[in-house]
Specification:
The structure is a single chain. The chain has 6 helices and 8 strands. It folds into 2 domains: 142 residues, 3-Layer(aba) Sandwich (Rossmann fold); 29 residues, no CATH class. Strands 1, 2, 3, 4, 5 and 6 form a 6-stranded mixed β-sheet that branches. The chain has 178 residues and is of the alpha/beta class. The radius of gyration is 16 Å and the shape is globular. The structure holds flavin mononucleotide (FMN). Flavin mononucleotide binds next to helix 1, strand 3, strand 5 and helix 5.
Length: 178
């Protein structure tokens, strides 16, 4: 199958996630085009059997590059199987309020763009103080200290569940192959 993967990343975890998926799909025999949304502007999605879009949440929003891409490609995206990978730290925990927040971010995004992905996966991202400026480091330390008392706040910590990610992407691919 021919698959398109577009993404936006701020600190790099979404990029790591989509690269992992792209390698896995290629190993499975699929043909994959991987691009950041900025670079993917003029892409012709009709050439693909499905599209995976990845973006991460910062202060309650996905990157504008995702919104711009979806608005520009709305007709094509709405006519093909899609999977949205929504990367965040809220998805790393089990806090009901955090998960309601993720639902709200998603429904606001769907309302603003008019696009409802065929499937959505909430993917746990990473805490990456090595990538933050002083203000972000301060804010994120407090959040992570409250959510994960075991975390060493001076070091990057990855929360992504790679097995769950593999399983969900495989299921999505097998559905569109069937
Ligand atoms: C300034 C800042 C704000 C963030 N805001 C949120 C947020 O509102 N909700 C959330 O669940 N995660 C939030 N995060 C966590 C990111 O979504 C997480 O670190 C993710 O892995 C980033 O992905 P990226 O490396 O691809 O940009 C925030 C991170 C930073 C640095």
């Amino acid at each position: 199958m021919k698959l398109f993967i577009g993404y936006a990343t701020t600190e790099g975890q979404t990029q790591k996630i989509v690269r992992h998926i792209a390698e896995r799909l290629v190993d499975q025999g699929h043909s994959v085009e991987l691009a950041t949304f900025g670079a993917a502007g003029p892409v012709d999605l009709k050439k693909f059997d499905g599209a995976i879009l990845g973006a991460s949440i910062h202060i309650g929003h996905y990157q504008t590059a995702l919104t711009d891409f979806v608005e520009a490609q709305l007709a094509a995206l709405s006519a093909m199987p899609t999977l949205l990978l929504s990367v965040s730290l809220a998805a790393a925990g089990h806090d009901a309020e955090d998960w309601r927040g993720l639902d709200k971010i998603l429904s606001d995004f769907a309302e603003a763009t008019g696009w409802t992905p065929t499937e959505v996966m909430q993917v746990a991202g990473a805490y990456t103080p090595s990538q933050y400026d002083v203000f972000r480091r301060f804010a994120m330390r407090r959040i992570v200290a409250a959510k994960d008392p075991e975390a060493d706040l001076d070091w990057d910590k990855e929360y992504t569940d790679w097995d769950a990610l593999n399983a969900q992407v495989d299921t999505w691919v097998s559905k569109i192959t069937a």
